[in-house]
Design brief:
Elements: E1 7-11, H1 16-27, E2 31-36, H2 39-50, E3 56-60, H3 66-80, E4 85-88, H4 103-131, E5 134-139, H5 143-146, H6 152-172, E6 177-184, H7 190-193, H8 197-204, H9 215-226, E7 237-240
Parallel strand pairs: 1-2, 1-4, 2-3, 4-5, 5-6, 6-7
Helix pairs in contact: 1-2, 1-9, 3-4, 4-6
Length: 246
Amino acid sequence: MDFKGQTAVVTGGARGIGKAIALRLAREGVNIAVADIGAGEAEATAVELRGHGVRAIALGMNVSSSSDVQKAMETVVKEMGRLDILINNAGITKDALLIRMKEEDWDAVLDINLKGVFLCSKEAVKYMSKQRYGRVVNIASVVAFIGNPGQANYSASKAGIVGLTKTIAREYAGRGITANAVAPGFITTAMTEALPENVKQEMLKAIPAGRFGTPEEVAEAVRFLAAPESAYITGHVVHVNGGMFM
């Protein structure tokens, strides 16, 4: 797969799945803009990416702020010359059972997880349309398809991403832009590592593969969908969940 000369923006790229995606694309020679609410962490990841021989910049960005997003995308094009790949990975959780969920926690999760994808995609496709080429890959979740107790806000935001992805795909296919989603299952991250052992064992019972996935396995699916050779795949969801949802 030939990514030579391409530039990617990875939101939430400073750590976890986002960082794994950034590293995987960097190994393909893709220049990376690491966008994260934590500018310091984003710069630390950018330094690591430069070790792979690519250009990398750090962007302190709140994906739910239209002005932040607009300025960030302008910076990417100004400093990198183009914008070929957008990875919408930034996300948060604020879990509670429906009856106990605070309205502000519902709003916060929808703002970052779903509105953020809308704002970033809206800005990115402006540049992609001019060059008549682009790849948008959105990180959804298995809970968009099966739900999860205590995650009404998170599940709704990730299900919304699936619908938004399909709409972007239909609107921009004629301009050489594809839009797809990757839906991870339970992935080994700092969040899952902090769970009590009995909770992790219960979660594992729902996974035919018998283990949690890794951020690197999610990154491989993203790399495939972001590649030039994946031009005829759009509006699709790739499930990376060890058989938890089929």
